[in-house]
Amino acid sequence: MSDARSRVLQRVREACRTARVPEATAPELVRCSLPEAQWLERFRGELEALNSRCSVVSTESALHELVHSEIAGKTVLGWDPERLPYGLSGQLDVSRSYLKGSADGEAKAAAEVGLTGVALAAAETGSIVLMPRSGEPRTASLLPLKHIAIVRADQMRADLAQCLEELQGQFGESSQVNVITGQSRSADIELSLILGMHGPAELHVIVGP
Question: Distance (Å, rounded) from C-alpha 161 to C-alpha 70?
C-alpha cells in the first residue's frame, strides 16, 4: 500500500473514531521550472498535441487579417467588441452577423464561431483561462462549434498555478473560472472519442505581439 493511501485511510479511521474531521493541510504545489523564453514554444506544442490550432503573429495588423479571414461570412458570438484586445473592435462588422451576450438565445445557439480574449494562458499545459464577466459572456467559448481565443503576449504564464494565484483577487468579479485545454472532447460512450460533445469541436488560439 502506498504511503499516500495509508495516510488517507488513517485520516478516515481517525475521523470515524473521534467523529471529528482532521484539519486539511494544503498540498505543496509543484511549480513549472520552464524558462520564460520557452513559454510560447511550450504553449504552442501542447495545444498542437491536442489537435488544436495555435497561430503566433508578430504584428497587430497581421492579427486583424487572420481574425477577419477566420470569421468572414460566418455568424460570430463574441465578447463585446470593446472588450477584445488589439483594437479588434474597430475591425469588426458589428451587425446581425456579430452577436453579443445579450442576443437572443436561439440566435446565439446557431452561431458558427465564438470570439474571445482570455484572462491568462498557461504554457505548461497549453491552457487558457477565462473569467466570464460583464461584456465577456461564457457562451462565446461554449456554444459555437469553433472557438477563437486571442491571447496577448503579456498574458502568458508558466503554469496554471501561477495563473490562478495572480487571478485570485478577481474571483469575486466573475461567476466562475473556466480553464480550457484543447477542444471539447469526451469518451464516455463506449470509450469512443468524440470532439465537440460538450463545447467547441475546434479551438484556435491566436497569440499576438
Answer: 32
As given in the structure block, the three cell numbers for residue 35 are 524558462
**What CA–CA distance (Å, rounded) separates 96 from 44?**
33
Q: Which residue has the higher pLDDT, 73 or 57?
A: 57
pLDDT score of 39? 96
Q: Are 192 and 43 in contact (CB under 8 A)?
A: no
CA–chain centroid gap for 88, Å, is 19
Asked if 116 and 81 touch (Cβ cutoff 8 Å), the reply is no
Least confident of 24-33, 78-87, 150-159, 172-181: 24-33
Question: How far is Cα 207 from Cα 63, in angstroms, rounded to an integer?
Answer: 8
Integer angstrom CA distances of residue 185 from 18, 105, 109, 145, 189: 43, 24, 19, 12, 11
Q: For residue 26, what pLDDT is reported?
A: 67
Q: Reduced to 3 states, what is the DSSP secondary structure of residue 129? A: strand
Backbone angles phi, psi at 96, to 5 degrees: -65, -20
Phi, psi of 22 (to 5 degrees): -65, 150
Give the containing element (helix H, strand E) for 33.
Answer: none
69-81 pLDDT, tens digit per residue, is 999 889 999 999 9
